[in-house]
Amino acid sequence: RWLFNQAVCTLYAFCGVLFGLCSLTSLTVLSTVCCLKVCYPAYGRCWDVLLLLLCVWAYALMFATAPLAEWGSYGPEPYGTACCITWKASSREATLYIIALFIFCYLLPCLLILISYSLILWTVRVSRRAVRQH
Protein backbone atom coordinates (compact mmCIF):
# COMPACT_ATOMS: atom_id res chain seq x y z
CA ARG A 1 0.00 0.00 0.00
CA TRP A 2 1.01 3.64 -0.34
CA LEU A 3 2.82 4.58 2.87
CA PHE A 4 2.71 8.35 2.64
CA ASN A 5 0.04 11.06 2.64
CA GLN A 6 -1.82 12.54 -0.34
CA ALA A 7 0.63 15.45 -0.75
CA VAL A 8 3.57 13.07 -1.21
CA CYS A 9 1.43 10.94 -3.55
CA THR A 10 0.69 14.01 -5.67
CA LEU A 11 4.35 15.06 -5.73
CA TYR A 12 5.45 11.52 -6.65
CA ALA A 13 2.90 11.32 -9.49
CA PHE A 14 3.71 14.83 -10.70
CA CYS A 15 7.42 14.00 -10.94
CA GLY A 16 6.72 10.72 -12.72
CA VAL A 17 4.47 12.40 -15.29
CA LEU A 18 6.79 15.40 -15.74
CA PHE A 19 9.96 13.36 -16.30
CA GLY A 20 8.18 10.78 -18.45
CA LEU A 21 6.74 13.49 -20.69
CA CYS A 22 10.12 15.25 -20.84
CA SER A 23 11.71 12.01 -21.96
CA LEU A 24 9.26 11.29 -24.77
CA THR A 25 9.13 14.92 -25.85
CA SER A 26 12.94 15.09 -25.93
CA LEU A 27 13.05 12.00 -28.13
CA THR A 28 10.47 13.57 -30.40
CA VAL A 29 12.44 16.80 -30.73
CA LEU A 30 15.66 14.86 -31.28
CA SER A 31 14.14 12.79 -34.08
CA THR A 32 12.63 15.89 -35.69
CA VAL A 33 15.92 17.81 -35.57
CA CYS A 34 17.77 14.79 -36.99
CA CYS A 35 15.21 14.59 -39.77
CA LEU A 36 15.64 18.27 -40.58
CA LYS A 37 19.44 17.97 -40.58
CA VAL A 38 19.43 14.91 -42.85
CA CYS A 39 16.46 15.58 -45.12
CA TYR A 40 16.37 19.39 -45.23
CA PRO A 41 19.91 20.63 -44.45
CA ALA A 42 19.01 24.27 -45.10
CA TYR A 43 16.58 24.20 -42.15
CA GLY A 44 18.70 22.00 -39.91
CA ARG A 45 21.02 24.79 -38.73
CA CYS A 46 18.48 27.27 -37.43
CA TRP A 47 17.51 25.53 -34.15
CA ASP A 48 18.78 26.82 -30.84
CA VAL A 49 19.32 23.90 -28.44
CA LEU A 50 18.50 25.92 -25.33
CA LEU A 51 15.23 27.11 -26.85
CA LEU A 52 14.29 23.54 -27.80
CA LEU A 53 15.02 22.31 -24.27
CA LEU A 54 12.93 25.10 -22.77
CA CYS A 55 10.06 24.19 -25.11
CA VAL A 56 10.32 20.52 -24.14
CA TRP A 57 10.16 21.34 -20.44
CA ALA A 58 7.34 23.87 -20.91
CA TYR A 59 5.29 21.35 -22.89
CA ALA A 60 5.78 18.64 -20.28
CA LEU A 61 5.16 21.06 -17.42
CA MET A 62 1.90 22.18 -19.00
CA PHE A 63 0.49 18.65 -19.04
CA ALA A 64 2.01 17.63 -15.69
CA THR A 65 0.57 20.63 -13.84
CA ALA A 66 -2.91 20.22 -15.33
CA PRO A 67 -4.04 17.78 -12.58
CA LEU A 68 -2.83 20.28 -9.98
CA ALA A 69 -5.20 22.81 -11.55
CA GLU A 70 -8.11 20.36 -11.23
CA TRP A 71 -7.98 19.19 -14.86
CA GLY A 72 -7.54 15.51 -14.15
CA SER A 73 -6.09 14.27 -10.88
CA TYR A 74 -3.27 12.35 -9.27
CA GLY A 75 -3.90 9.47 -6.91
CA PRO A 76 -2.87 5.95 -5.91
CA GLU A 77 -2.58 3.32 -8.63
CA PRO A 78 -5.09 0.46 -8.54
CA TYR A 79 -2.75 -1.75 -6.50
CA GLY A 80 -2.01 1.12 -4.15
CA THR A 81 1.78 0.80 -4.15
CA ALA A 82 2.52 3.98 -6.14
CA CYS A 83 0.78 7.10 -7.40
CA CYS A 84 0.07 8.34 -10.90
CA ILE A 85 -2.68 9.91 -12.97
CA THR A 86 -6.13 8.78 -11.90
CA TRP A 87 -7.08 6.86 -15.04
CA LYS A 88 -10.65 6.10 -13.99
CA ALA A 89 -12.11 9.47 -14.87
CA SER A 90 -14.82 10.59 -12.50
CA SER A 91 -15.74 13.75 -14.39
CA ARG A 92 -15.97 15.11 -17.91
CA GLU A 93 -12.88 17.29 -17.34
CA ALA A 94 -10.84 14.30 -16.18
CA THR A 95 -11.89 12.35 -19.27
CA LEU A 96 -10.90 15.25 -21.51
CA TYR A 97 -7.51 15.45 -19.78
CA ILE A 98 -6.86 11.75 -20.37
CA ILE A 99 -7.88 12.09 -24.03
CA ALA A 100 -5.68 15.20 -24.46
CA LEU A 101 -2.80 13.39 -22.75
CA PHE A 102 -3.20 10.42 -25.08
CA ILE A 103 -3.35 12.54 -28.23
CA PHE A 104 -0.75 15.23 -27.47
CA CYS A 105 1.66 13.33 -25.23
CA TYR A 106 1.60 9.85 -26.74
CA LEU A 107 0.02 9.62 -30.18
CA LEU A 108 1.42 12.83 -31.67
CA PRO A 109 5.01 12.28 -30.42
CA CYS A 110 4.99 8.67 -31.60
CA LEU A 111 3.72 9.71 -35.03
CA LEU A 112 6.33 12.46 -35.31
CA ILE A 113 9.10 10.03 -34.37
CA LEU A 114 7.82 7.47 -36.88
CA ILE A 115 7.53 10.05 -39.66
CA SER A 116 10.95 11.55 -38.89
CA TYR A 117 12.81 8.27 -38.99
CA SER A 118 10.87 7.13 -42.06
CA LEU A 119 11.92 10.30 -43.88
CA ILE A 120 15.53 9.77 -42.80
CA LEU A 121 15.50 6.19 -44.10
CA TRP A 122 13.89 7.30 -47.36
CA THR A 123 16.48 10.07 -47.83
CA VAL A 124 19.35 7.66 -47.16
CA ARG A 125 17.90 5.16 -49.62
CA VAL A 126 17.51 7.81 -52.34
CA SER A 127 21.05 9.10 -51.68
CA ARG A 128 22.47 5.60 -51.89
CA ARG A 129 20.80 5.09 -55.28
CA ALA A 130 22.19 8.41 -56.51
CA VAL A 131 25.70 7.47 -55.40
CA ARG A 132 25.45 4.07 -57.11
CA GLN A 133 24.44 5.70 -60.39
CA HIS A 134 27.48 7.97 -60.34
According to CATH, the fold-level topology is Rhopdopsin 7-helix transmembrane proteins
Protein structure class: mainly alpha
Shape: elongated
Q: Oligomeric status of the shown chains?
A: single chain
Mean pLDDT: 91
Separation of termini?
67 Å
Strand count, sense and barrel status of the largest sheet are: 2 strands, antiparallel
Q: Indicate the CATH architecture.
A: Up-down Bundle
> Residue ranges: pLDDT <50 for 5 or more in a row?
none
- SSE succession: HHEEH
Number of domains: 1
Q: Give the fraction of residues assigned to helices.
A: 55-70%
Structure summary:
The chain crosses the membrane at residues 12-36, 48-69, 96-124. The protein has three helices and two strands; from the N terminus they run ααββα.
